[in-house]
């Protein structure tokens, strides 16, 4: 998937958002209704105001996810947090401009406040010995405090108390109007187009800015451009998510995507998708609950996605890792049973191959016959062995026999390698080989085989023969006695 | 200052040298880290830059590429300015300078070496992808081409950086500690690669930390300690008194002065 494919998708959402802007009203003013009724209204999209809330949530999910992806890989999550809090005084100033919730005035004010905050952080870092995180903490708190003071003051004004400025604290998707959605659409389109156009450059400067500078890529311009887009994304998301939690919509979907993929373009797409999911889910729940604050529900939805990624990501997920470890432990257990059967057969010179009894296996594995039976039943389930119920003897299938030969072979090859190529004493090599035999890949086996045949060796440091590739191909139990050795394990 | 410069190798008059540095002084936060560096590197040489920690080795190659502002002096590459000859300059930054958990594949990183040829806002062509694949093959990482870079060992990561530099198809290479933290097998693979580049007429400057191997790896050595102590063919420069000057205590007055200048400017 390439980022360019996001454009038609985006265009569709913008059309949806602008479809019938003309006769829309805000759903914030709606009266109390039954939740089933509300759900129906939301899902059928009959109400234009619902369409605004939905389109706004989709758009903010896209822009926050996209830019959040960059701040996560650039390790600037804290910067996003600072930016999202620092815009509040700007929101208040934008409102004071003409004492109304004019989207453009608020957008301009908030963006300026965000940039001022970023400049303040840079100033603190350049002129003092404070580190970035401390500078961010100071600026975040200061700007937020100023913003809260201003918002509280506005609410106490006669025109202020019904203004809806309090919605900027915790977010209210239902308060979005046609103008808001249009602005969000413009900002999102701008972000998507610019990121697609400069994807290659953003990738390189995010990964290796020194190398990018050596190619004379405009590293600083790209950085500030990205920060400006980030500020835009935060500002347009404010009304639906709220100042307090908007940074979570930047970080959480992108963090979930980070756990799921190891390519940046996919990370950005997933982050946008999760952002959209969280946005829509948050708007829906908020609408059901008769316009509860939207921000917390969006963040809860995003966190749910993150929790799922944390647990079930194929590569990094906790549950998946546990599952892989468990599967590996079971495989090792099976291989050890096969190896024990091989040993039993080897000791008796591979005579009467079909008559290995559970007792012999149990003795070899140093466990109870019942436990040995369980082990054999596991082998049987994997098509590696059969248990004759009447006689209680074990029969390996061709696959089982091959695998048994392979494990013993890996073990002895590794022992030989350690003893002869690394010069480790023969009595020190067994324990290591017990572990390595299950992990040795085909490539390593070929390498060791090569030096083995170079040295003309056929047996391990203890004098036992290393099963050859030809042995693996032979049917089970027909191994020629001539290949083998006396039972003490010496070569003839 | 008495600088026992060895005589530079004879130059063919028609070709300007790959790298010419004149009186280059570089300062970090007002503190000078390189003083008056003069250097003319002849073509087709494998040059080791050695010196103690803080001698300004990385600073020198960064300043030579114009990544750091020079307080004074100038740098010429193939007789012109650095920005005129960007495509002829390849760079291998220090391995620790990037985040190896970054979500990119080996192929993606090597392809970055082509970005200087691709141009702003354009996408790499099929030819660029071919070059990247060839370079990955050259450093022996074909099996890892589509793996995320975090799956690689330190030595393999270093080879990814080298493959990216190869993909730049440059004539003059700056490499910042390509041997740092790699195993012996990778080290010999890297040196073989550098020899092959040299055989193709490339000029390579390598910041190097290990004195004993410097002697066998490089044609020429630049002994650096905030200034050029000596520069010339390895057998002429790898001398006890010159190394003593580079690593010994005699130049401490320079770093003390540097500190004094910094204090004064605050």
Description:
The complex is a heterodimer of chains A (492) and B (266). By secondary structure, chain A is mainly alpha-helical. Chain A has 3 domains: 312 residues, ABC transporter involved in vitamin B12 uptake, BtuC; 80 residues, Arc Repressor Mutant, subunit A, CATH 1.10.10.10; 77 residues, Iron dependent repressor, metal binding and dimerisation domain (Diphtheria Toxin Repressor, domain 2, Orthogonal Bundle). In chain A, 70% of the residues lie in helices and 2% in strands. Chain A has 22 helices and 3 strands. In chain A, α4 packs across α6 and α4 runs parallel beside α7. Chain A is elongated and about 100 Å long. The two termini of chain A are 62 Å apart. With 266 residues, chain B is of the alpha/beta class. Chain B has one domain: P-loop containing nucleotide triphosphate hydrolases (Rossmann fold), CATH 3.40.50.300. Chain B is built from 10 helices and 9 strands. Chains A and B meet through α10, α11 and α14 of A and α2 and α3 of B.
Summarize the structure.
The complex is a heterodimer of chains A (492) and B (266). Chain A is an all-alpha fold. Chain A folds into three domains: 3-314, ABC transporter involved in vitamin B12 uptake, BtuC, CATH 1.10.3470; 320-399, Orthogonal Bundle (Arc Repressor Mutant, subunit A); 407-483, Diphtheria Toxin Repressor, domain 2.
Keywords:
heterodimer; A: 492 residues; mainly alpha; ABC transporter involved in vitamin B12 uptake, BtuC; Arc Repressor Mutant, subunit A; Diphtheria Toxin Repressor, domain 2; 3 domains; 3-stranded antiparallel sheet; 22 helices; B: 266 residues; alpha/beta; Rossmann fold; 10 helices; 36% helix
Protein topology:
The complex is a heterodimer of chains A (492) and B (266).
Chain A: H1 6-18, H2 35-44, H3 48-73, H4 77-86, H5 88-98, H6 103-127, H7 132-156, H8 167-170, H9 178-197, H10 199-207, H11 209-214, H12 219-241, H13 246-260, H14 264-288, H15 294-312, H16 318-347, E1 356-357, H17 358-365, H18 369-381, E2 385-388, E3 393-396, H19 398-421, H20 430-436, H21 442-455, H22 469-473
Antiparallel strand pairs in A: 1-3, 2-3
Helix pairs in contact in A: 1-3, 1-9, 3-9, 3-12, 3-13, 3-14, 4-6, 4-7, 4-13, 5-6, 5-7, 6-7, 6-12, 9-12, 12-13, 13-14, 13-15, 14-15, 16-17, 16-18, 16-19, 17-18, 19-20, 19-21
Chain B: E1 19-28, E2 31-41, E3 46-50, H1 57-64, E4 70-77, E5 89-92, H2 106-112, H3 115-118, H4 126-138, H5 154-167, E6 172-176, H6 184-199, E7 203-207, H7 211-217, E8 220-224, E9 228-233, H8 234-237, H9 240-247, H10 252-265
Parallel strand pairs in B: 3-7, 3-8, 5-6, 6-7
Antiparallel strand pairs in B: 1-2, 1-4, 8-9
Helix pairs in contact in B: 2-4, 2-5, 4-5
């Amino acid at each position: 998937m390439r980022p360019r494919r996001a454009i038609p998708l985006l265009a569709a959402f913008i059309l949806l958002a602008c479809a019938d802007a003309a006769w829309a009203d805000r759903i914030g003013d709606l009266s109390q209704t039954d939740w089933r009724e509300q759900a129906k209204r939301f899902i059928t999209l009959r109400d234009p105001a619902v369409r605004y809330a939905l389109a706004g949530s989709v758009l903010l999910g896209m822009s926050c996810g996209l830019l959040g992806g960059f701040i996560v890989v650039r390790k600037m999550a804290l910067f996003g947090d600072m930016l999202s809090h620092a815009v509040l005084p700007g929101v208040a100033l934008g409102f004071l401009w003409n004492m109304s919730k004019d989207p453009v005035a608020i957008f301009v004010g908030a963006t300026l406040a965000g940039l001022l905050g970023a400049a303040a952080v840079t100033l603190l870092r350049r002129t003092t010995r404070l580190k970035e995180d401390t500078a961010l903490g100071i600026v975040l708190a200061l700007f937020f405090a100023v913003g809260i003071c201003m918002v509280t003051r506005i609410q106490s004004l006669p025109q202020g108390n019904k203004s809806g400025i309090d919605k900027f604290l915790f977010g209210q998707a239902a308060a979005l109007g046609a103008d808001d959605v249009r602005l969000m659409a413009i900002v999102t389109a701008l972000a998507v187009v610019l990121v697609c156009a400069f994807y290659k450059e953003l990738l390189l400067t995010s990964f290796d800015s020194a190398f990018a500078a050596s190619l004379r890529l405009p590293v600083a311009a790209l950085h500030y451009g990205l920060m400006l887009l980030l500020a835009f994304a935060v500002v347009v998301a404010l009304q639906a998510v709220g100042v307090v939690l908007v940074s979570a919509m930047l970080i959480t979907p992108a963090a979930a995507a980070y756990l799921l993929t190891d390519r940046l373009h996919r990370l950005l797409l997933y982050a946008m998708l999760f952002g959209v999911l969280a946005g829509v889910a948050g708007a829906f729940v908020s609408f059901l609950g008769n316009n509860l604050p939207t921000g917390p529900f969006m963040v809860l939805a995003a966190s749910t996605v993150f929790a799922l990624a944390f647990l079930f990501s194929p590569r990094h997920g906790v549950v998946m890792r546990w599952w892989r470890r468990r599967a590996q432990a079971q495989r090792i257990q099976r291989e050890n049973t096969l190896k024990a059967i091989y040993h039993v057969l080897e000791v008796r010179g591979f005579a009467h191959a079909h008559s290995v009894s559970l007792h012999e296996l149990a003795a070899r594995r140093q466990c109870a016959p019942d436990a040995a039976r369980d082990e054999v039943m596991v082998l049987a389930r994997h098509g590696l062995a059969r248990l004759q119920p009447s006689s209680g003897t074990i029969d390996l299938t061709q696959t089982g026999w091959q695998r048994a030969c392979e494990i013993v072979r890996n073990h002895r090859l590794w022992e030989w390698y350690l003893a002869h190529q690394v010069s480790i004493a023969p009595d020190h090599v067994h324990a290591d080989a017990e572990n390595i035999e299950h992990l040795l890949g085909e490539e390593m086996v070929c390498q060791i085989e090569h030096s083995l045949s170079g040295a003309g060796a056929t047996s391990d440091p203890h004098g036992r023969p290393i099963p050859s590739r030809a042995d693996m191909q032979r049917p089970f139990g027909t191994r020629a006695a001539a290949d083998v050795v006396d039972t003490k394990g010496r070569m003839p | 200052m008495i600088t026992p410069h060895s005589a530079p190798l004879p130059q063919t008059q028609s070709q300007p040298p790959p790298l010419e540095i004149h009186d280059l002084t570089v300062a970090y936060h007002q503190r000078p880290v390189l003083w008056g560096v003069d250097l003319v590197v002849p073509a087709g040489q494998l040059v080791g830059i050695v010196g103690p920690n803080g001698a300004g080795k990385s600073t020198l190659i960064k300043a030579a590429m114009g990544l750091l502002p020079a307080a004074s002096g100038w740098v010429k590459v193939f007789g012109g300015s650095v920005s005129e000859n960007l495509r002829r300059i390849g760079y291998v930054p220090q391995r620790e300078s990037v985040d190896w958990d970054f979500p990119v594949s080996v192929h993606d990183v090597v392809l970055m070496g082509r970005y200087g040829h691709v141009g702003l806002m354009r996408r790499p062509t099929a030819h660029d992808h071919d070059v990247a694949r060839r370079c990955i093959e050259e450093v022996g990482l074909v099996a890892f081409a589509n793996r995320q870079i975090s799956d690689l060992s330190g030595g393999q990561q270093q080879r990814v950086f080298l493959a990216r530099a190869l993909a730049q198809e440059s004539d003059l290479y700056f490499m910042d500690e390509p041997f740092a933290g790699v195993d012996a097998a990778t080290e010999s693979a890297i040196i073989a690669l550098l020899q092959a580049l040299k055989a193709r007429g490339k000029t390579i400057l390598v910041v190097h930390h290990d004195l004993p191997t410097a002697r066998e790896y490089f044609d020429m050595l630049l002994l650096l300690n905030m200034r050029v102590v000596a520069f010339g063919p390895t057998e002429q420069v790898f001398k006890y008194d010159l190394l003593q000057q580079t690593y010994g205590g005699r130049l401490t007055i320079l770093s003390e002065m540097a500190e004094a200048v910094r204090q004064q400017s605050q």
